[in-house]
Each structure stands twice: as C-alpha cells, then as structure tokens.
C-alpha cells in the first residue's frame, strides 16, 4: 500500500522538516466525540484537591497544604516585547507548569493523578477507606504495607518517569521505571536516590515502553502507566482547566466571542496538551483556541491529524526518524486515545526547529528569568505564528477573529524545567547563545 497517496500539501513542509502551521478544518463550535467513560474530569479535579494534604505530608517543603499541584499564571510583557509582539495582537500570559512542585513538569498533573487513583483504588478495595474519604490514609502504615506488595511501572525517558517514580515510591509502592540506555544520567540517579528501580534497555523510548508494558502484564500486582492510552493520565491533565479559569479571572481576563483565548501547548504523544485542551473546551467552549507545538523532527500529532486518517499514521510512515533535542516531545506516533478527541476541539498545530526552540528558551531566560527545558519553550512562538505568519493571518481573517485580536489573551504553557540540573541548564544556554534562529514567521 502506498502510505503517501493523497496526503494534503502541508506534508511537503512536514516531510522537509520546515516550520509550518496547520489549521484544523474540522474544528467545530460544539465539541463532538465524547471521551471514553473512564475519563472523568470532575472526579480528577476533586481528587487533586483532596490530595493536597497528602502531598503536603509527603513533601512539606515543596507542596502547599491547600493547593498541591498548581502553578502560577503570570504576565509576560517583557517576553512579548523581546519577541516583537505589538498591542494589536493582544495580551500575553504564561502558565508556569515548569515550576510545578516535586516533578517540575506538566507530568505532575497527569502522572500524580494516575498514581493517586491507583493508590485510592487499592485502599478502597482493601477496606482502608470509604469512597470520597480522607486521602491522608494513603500515608499510614497499613496503606504502605499494602502498597509494598504492588508495583507501579512506567516506560519513559524523562518527565513522566520522574512524576510516576517519585510519587509511587514516596507512597511505598515498588516503583519501576523502564528507560532507554541513552536517557540522561542525572534522571536515572535522581530516581534511584528516591528508591525507584531504574531498568535500562538498549534501543529507543518505544522499546523501553514496550518492555515495561510486557513486564507489568506478567504481574497481577503491577500497574502499568500507559502514556499512549491512559484515561487517568488524560483526566489529570484535563483538571488543569479548573485551575486556569479562576486565575484568568484574577487577571481580569474575560473569555467570550469578543475576547478570545488562545493557548499554546507543547505536544509529545498528546496526553498533556490533549487533556488540557479537553478541559478548556469544556470550560470555555468555542471561544478558546488551543494550538499544539511540535518539533519539526518529531511532529507526530500534526502528521496524524493533518493526514485525516483514523488509523494510526506515524512519522516513520513519511520517512522521519524522530530526532530532536526536545526530548520531552520526541514521539513518533500520536496517542490513539487523544487524536480522535482533538478532531473537533483543537484549533491547529505548528512546528518549530530545534534551533528555534533553543532561541526561545534563551529569550524566556533573558527576559523573564524562567528556567525551562527546550521542549517547554515551544509555546512561546504561538502568538507570533498566529499573528504574523501567512497561514495564521489568513486563519484570523477567515474566521472573523482578526477584528477582535486587540482584545485577545494568549496563554503560553511552559511545561517543564525545574528539575534540570544547573550544569545542564548552563549548557543549554551556552548552546542557545551561539544560535540566531529566525523567529519571524512571515513565510509560514
Ligand atoms: C511530556 C511533556 C510534554 C508533552 O506531553 P505529551 O503528553 O507527551 O504530549 C511537553 N513538555 C514537556 C516538558 C513534557 O515533559
């Protein structure tokens, strides 16, 4: 079968690894296509709130007793000036998930939620608590004794392994993270220091995931966290919307058809940006426009979605090998749970070169002092791509949004970075200072 027959013209740019913007022609005002019944966003919001005292008990220095997994929403005027925005484009805010406690990345939302759901489920079925009860029970000795006989397993090269590994091991689970051998040394050390078993595999990330899944399948007492299709991860990410809503209000931001909200989300397999988009569309309906950002080397979501196919379609099918410095986004195949749910919900997807990611990382550091990782910088180009590129301007004109752009709000979601060691960060910045990637997107 010819995989490449009838692909839309944007595949010329995708295959050539040139930055591009894809606007979703199937986005609808009313969301279509419900999530599987296992996705329960209300329950996830509640569970994350209920978990605050527990997480505070586990990490009193880093977690507030009232609001466990939250990050600030901040004004970033200096960043918008530094990148050459103009008032006609609207206001820029930044959602600082790179500062999320303990895990230091957006994975604290989905990852912590899944571990909490597993722990709560076990405590319930073993009579340690009743439904809706106090989650502090999960930190008591009877619960620890129960968790010791259970393992939580995940395959990950980075942030997901960190979030799952740190919380499951803090609760007393046997915690196992499968990694590829070339994963960063400091990540393995950090996990091992926290009591996590790190199992290294030759080959790539996908191989590590497959080996983890296989190992867990043979063990009745093992729970495998499946980055590609887990509803609990997804609903944990979606719960972020209920946090952003009041924060926008506190900043005096209204969201309606005269005041559209644009949100820019770095995308790997799609769980985090997809879950957040799902939650935001529930909250704001058609007036929120979520755009995903991917590296040109691993643009799995735009490949899947722009192809228009419902069967899996990967970057390997168009001859890309997935190489990128943005290791949080180096994924070849989009999540089969998420892609169909984005069909009516996501506004579009853009891609950036690694050099552009590093240049954005430097601008975020220089202008605002934010310590982020390359993947997490991808959202910062969003307002420029939308407002300045040929494709973006055509979209704004065609949809009637051009008129209301001065009243628009842009939210750049920075997804990770707090755990990056100082030495590593210096190397990122040093590399970035040698680059002068083009951040004008007129031709995109
Ligand atoms: C995981 C991750 C993402 C993307 O999340 P997916 O669920 O893989 O799409 C973005 N940024 C950072 C820093 C991440 O670790």
Task: Describe the structure in your own words.
40% of the residues lie in helices and 13% in strands. It is α/β, with parallel strands linked by helices and 444 residues long. The strands form 2 sheets. Strands 1-10-9-8-11-3-2 form a 7-stranded mixed β-sheet, with helices on both faces. A 4-stranded parallel β-sheet has the order 6-5-4-7, sandwiched between helices. Strand 4 (151-155), helix 7 and strand 5 (174-180) form a beta-alpha-beta unit. The radius of gyration is 21 Å and the shape is globular. The chain starts with 10 loop residues before the first helix and ends in an 11-residue tail after the last helix. Bound molecules: pyridoxal-5'-phosphate (PLP). Pyridoxal-5'-phosphate binds at residues 105-107, 159, 266-273, 328-329, 373, 375-376, 415-416.
Looking at this protein, list some descriptive labels:
binds pyridoxal-5'-phosphate, seven-stranded mixed β-sheet, four-stranded parallel β-sheet, 40% helix, 444 residues, alpha/beta, 11 strands, single chain, globular
> In terms of per-residue confidence, which ranges show pLDDT below 50 for 5 or more consecutive residues?
none
From the N-terminal CA to the C-terminal CA, the straight-line distance is 31 Å
Helix content: 40-55%
Structural class by secondary-structure content: alpha/beta
Q: What's the gyration radius in Å?
A: 21 Å
Helices, by number, come to: 18
Strand content: 5-15%
Shape: globular
Total beta-strand segments = 11
Helix-strand sequence: HEHHEHEHHEHEHEHEHHEHEHHEHHHEH
How are the strands ordered across the major sheet?
Answer: 1-10-9-8-11-3-2
Bound molecules: pyridoxal-5'-phosphate
Main pleated sheet: 7 strands, mixed
| Average pLDDT, all residues | 94
